Structure formats: C-alpha cells, structure tokens
Amino acid sequence: MSTRRRDLLAALAPVTKALRKVETEAATQEGITMWQYAILAVVAQTPGLNQGEVAHTLGYSPNRIISDLDVLEQRDLLKRIPGADRRSNILTITAAGTRLMRRVQADIHRGEDQLLAPLPVRHRRSLVEAAHALADALRESDSRASS
Amino acid sequence: MSTRRRDLLAALAPVTKALRKVETEAATQEGITMWQYAILAVVAQTPGLNQGEVAHTLGYSPNRIISDLDVLEQRDLLKRIPGADRRSNILTITAAGTRLMRRVQADIHRGEDQLLAPLPVRHRRSLVEAAHALADALRESDSRASS
DNA sequence: TATTGTTATACTCTATAACTATA
DNA sequence: TATAGTTATAGAGTATAACAATA
C-alpha cells in the first residue's frame, strides 16, 4: 500500500505562521509593524511603484496600506511623491528608512535561519528555491490574468 | 556583488494564501468550512484524540473548535465520545464523514496539482518534501517545549 | 488545585462600498 | 467615464477571561 498523500497546506501553514511571528517580533523591536516593514522592503527593492502597486505586490489592500504609509511618512522612513499622473503617489524610501529596514531584515534572516536549522541543508536550500520559484510563477500567472 | 537575500515569508505567504483558497473552495462545495474539513482530516488520520489535541494539532483554538464540532456532529460526520477521563471527548469520524472528507480532499489535491504545475517536477517534489519535514520538525520542537 | 470543555466578550484584521480629485 | 487615493463601516476571524464538570 502507498503512503496516504497529505495536504500541503497542513504542512505549510505552521511554517508560514512561525515566519509571521519572526517578522512581527523583528519589526516590533524597531517600533514598526510587520506590514510596515514589508512595505519598506518592497519599496526598497522596487523603486518607482505607486501605492496600489505596492499593495498588490504584498497581497495587501489599497485601503489598509494608507494608515501604514501615514505612519512611515510621519517618521521620515518613506515619502509619497506625486507622479506625472498627479492622482498617484510614487513611494520612495528614505536613508533612515533603508537603515531601519536593513536592521529588521537582518533580524528576520537570523530568525529564519534558526527556524530552518532542523532541516538538512539540502532540504533547506530546495525549500527556499522552490518557494521563490513558485511565488514568481504565481505572480506571472496573476499578471497574465489581469491583462 | 551577491544577489540580495529575499525574505522567505514574502515567497511563502502568497503560496499559503492560494492553498487556503483552494481548500476553502473545495470545502464550501461540500457544504462545510475549511476548518471543518481540517478537523475531519486530522480525526481521520489520528483517531483517539480529544478536542484540545485536535485543536492544537491544527494550530486552532480550543474554543473556536466547539461550534465547528457542533455542526459536524449534527450532520453525523463526526462523534464526540466521552473518554475514560470523562471530562474529555474522544473524536471519531463517521462513515459519512470519511466519504465527505475524501471527496473534499480529492478536490484539494487536484487544486494543489494545478497550483504547483508551473513548477519543474524536481522543485515540486522538493517543496512538498521540505515542507512536510519542516512541519514535522516544528511539531517536534513544540512538543519538547511543552514538557 | 488543575484540566476539559464551554460560553461570553472584546479586539484585530480584512473586505466592501461610497467619496474626492484628477484624468 | 474611469482610475488613484481616501474614508467610513460592517463583517469575519481571533484572542482573553470567566464558568461548570470532572479529576
């Protein structure tokens, strides 16, 4: 007889949950929320996006991002700059924002390493690779769907 | 220069989100919720657990599981049987519950296959393997912590 | 006194719809 | 008219604390 197939979500959900905890704690330690960190990370990696695009990249809502941006802008971690189309705001991270984002990120990566530690190195690398590849593929098919 | 390391959560979150959608739709189609399906799946795979243990296995709350169990029991998909310790209820899936659970599960596995399709077969297998291995490891360290 | 299940309550997170200003 | 951003509101999801029955 064959081993019964297990649901993938049952395996991934606890991992994601643990990762959320890692990010939340790292962000909180620097006085921001997990989502605020995520926003800074996206803006840093992909400059020139407007609010809606950043929200979409994160799987976040265009309305929920607003109060976060208010906080980040008030703390001079990020700027809203009117674009050529004056309805939209181009988001730009500040020097202080970059520094804070990197501190949080370093902390997160330490937490990730600790979380993945029980996994054999081979499995660890393949998990990270596969996750990124799949996320990229999902983004691909997503942008195909909205065309 | 090296490629900047990306956050693992940023890659896994969309995948988990898509998987949740798959499970929710499959369960809804059979008239139950995602959590109710998850409960049936755990009870089917590991008979003899009580309510609290099932909730813990799922990362669910002991109080939130109650209304779900009420529904499942009312529909004769599951039974609460007083244990030797008469405070606790041993959960047992019924024949009808098993049939319904398997239908939902088959649907979920189809959805998973579709979701993982864009991934090269090699990556697909390693993702599933690594996810299960890590989930098992987390469960391990978790039960060590509560001893 | 501690634990299992239960109930009630409050809180956070998320989704929906209406409004403004630009286009 | 359509879109980006904003605001307000309602709903789902989640966490916390108190209670009853049993150990």
Task: Offer a quick outline of the entry.
The first copy, chain A, has 147 residues and is mainly alpha-helical. Chain A has helices spanning 8-29, 34-45, 51-58, 64-74, 95-116, 121-145, and strands spanning 78-82, 89-93.
* Uncertain spans of chain A: none
Distance between the termini of chain A: 46 Å
Task: Indicate the overall shape of chain A.
Answer: globular
Beta-strand level of the residues of chain A, as a percent range? 5-15%
From the structure provided, what is the oligomeric state, counting identical versus distinct chains? homodimer
How many β strands of chain A by DSSP? 2
The number of distinct helices of chain A, counting runs of at least 4 residues, comes to 6
Order of helices and strands of chain A: HHHHEEHH
Helix content of chain A: 55-70%
| Main beta sheet of chain A | 2 strands, antiparallel
Structural class category of chain A:
mainly alpha
Average of pLDDT of chain A? 92
User: Which chains make the largest contact?
Assistant: A-B, 49 and 49 residues
Q: State the strand order across the main sheet of chain A.
A: 1-2
Please tell me how large the radius of gyration of chain A is.
18 Å
Structure description:
Two copies of one chain form a homodimer. Chain A has six helices and two strands; from the N terminus they run ααααββαα. In chain A, 68% of the residues lie in helices and 7% in strands. A two-stranded antiparallel ribbon of chain A has the order 1-2. In chain A, strand 1 (78-82) and strand 2 form a beta hairpin. By secondary structure, chain A is mainly α. The longest helix of chain A is centred in the last third of the chain and has 25 residues, at 121-145. Chains A and B meet through helix 1, helix 2, helix 5 and helix 6 of A and helix 1, helix 2, helix 5 and helix 6 of B. Chain A binds a DNA duplex (23 and 23 nucleotides) through residues 50-52, 61-64, 66, 85-89.
